[in-house]
Amino acid sequence: MTGRFRIAKGWRDMKTIAYLTLDTLFWSKKTIFVVFISLVVLGMAVLGRLVLSYNWIRAPFTPAQVFSTLMSTAVIHFMVVFVTLFYGTALISEEVEGKTLTYLFLRPIPKPAIMVGKYLALVWTSVLLVLPTVVFSYLILYLRDDLRPFWEDAGVLGKDIGIVFLALLAYGAFFSLLGAWLKHPILAGLIYAFGWEGIVSYLPGFTRKLTVTHYIQSIFPHENAPASLAMLFGERTQAPEAVSTLLLMTALFLAAACLVLREKEYVLEQ
Amino acid sequence: MTRILEAKGVSKWYGQVIAVNKVSFSVGPGVTGLLGPNGAGKSTLMKLITGQLRPSQGELTLWGERIWNNYPLFYRMGFCPEQDSFYDRMTGAEFVAALLRLHGFSETEVNQRTDSALQQVNLVEARDKKIGAYSKGMRQRIKLAQAVAHDPELLVLDEPLAGMDPVARKETIRLIRILGKEGKCVIVSSHILHEIEAMTSNILLIHNGQVLAEGDVHDIRDLIDKHPHHIYIRCSEPRRAAELLVAFPDVVSIRFHPESNALTLESRNPDEFYSRLPGLLLRHEIALEEITSPDDNLQAVFHYLVK
């Protein structure tokens, strides 16, 4: 088998696995929950817009401030984490629970191709569900007669989309690893996301660099209370380093997930 | 014999539990029945053969190659798992086609092979029905379809007849025999002796994780026939029947069941006994109401072999 043929076959295998996974991921009960989260975020954007339009609160609110709060609290620290946690951990563990993994493992494709194919489906589904929420929130908050703020902050929206995408990649890879590795990955994922990350990112020193959220906060274009508090205890990582670390983390987590899938024996209970 | 599958001292344990214990055997072309009662280690052995599990000890090879993490072998192997699990939202045809795509076939070939596989298992009419709406027997058949669709040289079928109605069962047995005659290596597991006997005479008996016997079923039967067989007879005149039967040289003992007008006897040569019995009863006008052999099940066969 030549190298070129190998690559072509590998890509085709991953695509086939991704298509197969998309169907099972998208048409699952989790999607209802994710759509609900998305509607909550959009509902918050609508509420913000009403507050802005009718001056319900006597404070100098701007669309940028509401959008910033929405992004830092609801989208990055909540929606992204939950979407990737639910879908990422399900990639392998649901095939194990549903005992369908046998059908994939007994095909002439390397196990890492199965993992990567499934991960591609996860990224695609998450992007499809999270990014429109970001864009629609922006539209809800910024579309008005005076379009100047809309165009002025379009760059921030672009950055936010990029950051959300990077966060989806990194968290997605991490939770995929947990799903391939552990029997109860959701619990472990919750402990990581809301325990470890919640505590460590406020600690001084190097340990905070052992979280995904540190690098996301480092490149986050908005000022927000939790991030500012966290940054009080330590320096932000420089943007190029933060981006490359997030990409490196993604690659490492994904490689580890592939290795686990390759070496672990999955005993499907009869 | 061309050796396709070879096991040398293979063991598999889960923690403290030994599922397969130092088994050595080889399998060539044709149908081989893997027989054993529930919990004997059949499914673990099947999972080892199909590379789902890694042997804890020993060597297991297919065409001379190790199986664990050797994915190119799956071009040549098809597997019908025991578990009743599917991507339920898919139709039968979508399920077979999706798995065929993972073999790298072109879309035209995928469609042709899907049609052919569904035809082989008589599921053409239900091809566009969701698997979730299939009956148990249809689900068994769609599992078989995905196993044969890529025309593998080795087929591993884990309890393929479970849940099938008699017609589907007969058809599946016929299909397995045909595949064996075509020179493919088919390994079929079951805990029901007569199911296996209908497919092949070549068997591998497994019990408590060990291979008890390997080879032709008749040879194994001969081995078993050295032990007396229990035969239960219910008839109009059990006492008179007993008087006649006790004269048979192969009859070792007779026990009465007065409450049910029946008797149980032990014969050292059951084949000969069965051939003589109808004539004898007819001559003496004794009406035979029931004749069964409590030994005619796999558990009893194992009992004999283990004893």
Could you explain the architecture of this structure?
The complex is a heterodimer of chains A (270) and B (307). Chain A has one domain. In chain A, helix 3 runs parallel beside helix 7 and helix 9 runs antiparallel to helix 11. Chain A is 79% helix and 0% strand. With 270 residues, chain A is an all-alpha fold. Chain B is an alpha/beta fold and 307 residues long. Chain B folds into 2 domains: 212 residues, Rossmann fold, CATH 3.40.50; 81 residues, 2-Layer Sandwich (Alpha-Beta Plaits). Helix content of chain B is 35%, strand content 29%. In chain B, strands 6-7-8-3-9-10 form a 6-stranded mixed β-sheet, sandwiched between helices. Chain B has a 4-stranded antiparallel β-sheet with strand order 2-1-4-5, covered by helices on one side. In chain B, strand 4 and strand 5 form a beta hairpin. Chain B is globular. Chain B starts with a strand and ends with a helix. Chains A and B meet through helix 1 and helix 4 of A and strand 6 and helix 2 of B.
